[in-house]
Every structure is written in structure tokens, then in C-alpha cells.
From TrEMBL:
Organism the protein comes from: Rhodobacter maris
Official protein name in the record: Biotin transport system ATP-binding protein
Source domain of life: Bacteria
Keyword terms of this UniProt record: ATP-binding, Nucleotide-binding, Transport
Similarity comment: Belongs to the ABC transporter superfamily.
Lineage of source species: Bacteria, Pseudomonadati, Pseudomonadota, Alphaproteobacteria, Rhodobacterales
Length: 260
């Protein structure tokens, strides 16, 4: 699980490692009914003297949104705005009417975040304990929490790994645990920051299938153009600005043109 000041909905894990036979997360939680509306208005941000995001205004409502662009173009910074991991220097980010600068707890209940490195999210010794951690503080009884953990383990085909040490999992399993740990809190939207970067082809395909099968809204930062090729909408970042906002085919074409 994740700790840290950034924290949000938590981690979870996946099953038999590199196995391709793990079932996709089928039954989404009843509360995870999708999209909602994330409005980014006149947002600028800088960490040092150099602006990282420059006057961005965009409204996100689609169920599958990809974010691509060159290294350092501001994609991860933008992603971290979406659930209030980062509050912009200028402008506003509003999730279903909730301002990330003021309503952080409510925003994080709605928008989960899966970090690039699952080790940043996995906190507890075993897979089941890590999943259960995400449910703390939600006002649920012990029996209800246990039932939700059981359901999430089953959803990801991880039952056999329930009592396994989370930190001994493979990279692919850890990434699945991280995703499960976020989903167990029933966010309506999940932001993924380069979810397949450290994975081999088999696990990359598995995670892509997991994301494709989600009922939750997914916003995915990636360099894997295949991953977002079937999405509803793709944003292309360049030097802190959105330079294309289009279908995957047209957005990818613009990105490739800029990369030449
Ligand atoms: N916490 C931070 N402190 C200082 N600078 C930062 C911080 N986070 C990001 N930056 C800088 O902001 C710029 C944009 O970083 P960001 O991670 O958003 O880019 P990115 O498009 O996601 O890049 P990549 O594709 O390489 O992951 C980079 O120059 C980066 O060094």
C-alpha cells in the first residue's frame, strides 16, 4: 500500500505471476458507475523557474482517455492534478463539482491513482492485508471488509496469493495488486501513470486487458501507443501544453509527427 502524504485509494495485487490465464476483473463494484466530469481550468504549474504545465483548460468526461507525449512534457504532473496529489499553482481542477484544492478527501474517494512503481503502493506484508488496508477508515465492519477483500481477490484471480508476501511478487503481480488495491475502494475513475512501463509483453497485455475490462473510468498516461489505441480520446502533451486532443489515430499521428 501506499503511504505517504500522497495517499489515496490503495493497492492490491494479482495472482499467479506472469500467468496469462488470470481472469480479467469482471464484476465492477456497484458504485463504480463511471466517468463523471473532471474540469481543468486555466491550470499552470511549476516546480522551479520553468513552467511544467502552461495554461491548460480541458474537460474530461470520456470513459477511456489516454495521455501521451515526450519525456518531461508534463503528463505525470497533469495526472497528479486529477485526484489532488498535486494542487496547481494557478487555475482549478474540479471533479464532479469538488475542487481538489478544498475537497481533497471527497476527490480521492472518486478518483484513484495507480503509480508507475507498485512498490510505492504496497505497504502491508501480505496480499490480503494490503488490500484490506485500503478499506480502513471507510466505516466498514470487519466482516464487510473481509468479504470485499475476498471478492477482489477472486475478481483478479488472486485467491492463491492471498497470504503471500506482497513484496515477493513479480513485477506484473505487484502491478495487479496495486490496481486491485485502488479498485477495492470503489472509485468512479482511476488514473494510471505508465502502468506497463516495467512489464514484459505478456504482463503488458494482461494489464491492458485489465484496463479495457474496467467499468470504472480510466485515464492512462503511457508511452505504449498500443495501450491507448482503442480509447475514446487521447491527449498529446508537448512542453506543458496539450497540442492534440483527438481520436487515438489522429492524436498518435500528431505525436509521431512531432517525434520525427
Ligand atoms: N517534484 C518535482 N520537482 C521538480 N521538478 C519536477 C517534479 N516533478 C516533475 N518535475 C519536472 O517537471 C517536468 C515534467 O515532468 P513530468 O513527470 O510531468 O513529465 P512526463 O511527461 O510525465 O515525463 P516522462 O514521460 O518522462 O515520465 C520535468 O522536467 C520534471 O523534471
Amino acid at each position: 500500500m501506499i503511504h505517504s502524504s500522497l495517499q489515496l485509494p490503495r493497492p492490491g495485487l494479482q495472482s499467479a505471476a506472469g500467468s496469462t490465464s488470470v481472469p480479467l476483473p469482471a464484476a465492477p463494484s456497484p458504485q463504480a458507475s463511471g466517468a463523471g466530469r473532471i474540469e481543468i481550468s486555466a491550470v499552470s504549474h511549476r516546480f522551479t523557474d520553468t513552467p511544467v504545465l502552461r495554461d491548460i483548460t480541458v474537460t474530461l468526461t470520456e470513459r477511456r482517455i489516454g495521455i501521451i507525449g515526450a519525456n518531461g512534457s508534463g503528463k505525470s504532473t497533469f495526472a497528479r492534478l486529477l485526484n489532488g496529489l498535486l494542487v496547481p499553482d494557478r487555475g482549478r481542477v474540479v471533479v464532479d463539482g469538488l475542487d481538489t484544492a478544498r475537497d481533497i478527501k471527497a476527490v480521492r474517494r472518486k478518483v484513484g491513482f495507480v503509480f508507475q512503481n507498485p512498490d510505492n503502493q504496497i505497504v502491508f506484508p501480505t496480499v490480503a492485508e494490503d488490500l484490506a488496508f485500503g478499506l480502513k477508515g471507510l466505516g466498514l465492519g470487519r466482516a464487510e471488509r473481509a468479504e470485499m477483500v475476498t471478492q477482489m481477490l477472486a475478481r483478479f484471480g488472486l485467491e492463491a496469493l492471498a497470504d503471500q508476501s506482497a513484496h515477493k511478487l513479480s513485477g506484473g503481480q505487484k502491478q495487479l495488486l496495486a490496481i486491485a488495491g485502488v479498485l477495492i475502494t470503489k472509485p468512479a475513475c482511476v488514473v494510471f501513470d505508465e502502468p506497463t512501463t516495467a512489464l514484459d509483453l505478456r504482463n503488458t497485455r494482461h494489464i491492458a486487458g485489465v484496463i479495457a475490462a474496467l467499468s470504472e473510468t480510466a485515464i492512462v498516461v503511457t508511452h505504449d501507443l498500443d495501450l491507448i489505441s482503442g480509447f475514446d480520446r487521447v491527449l498529446v502533451f508537448d512542453a506543458g501544453r496539450i497540442v492534440a486532443d483527438d481520436t487515438p489515430a489522429r492524436a498518435i499521428a500528431e505525436y509521431l509527427r512531432r517525434m520525427q
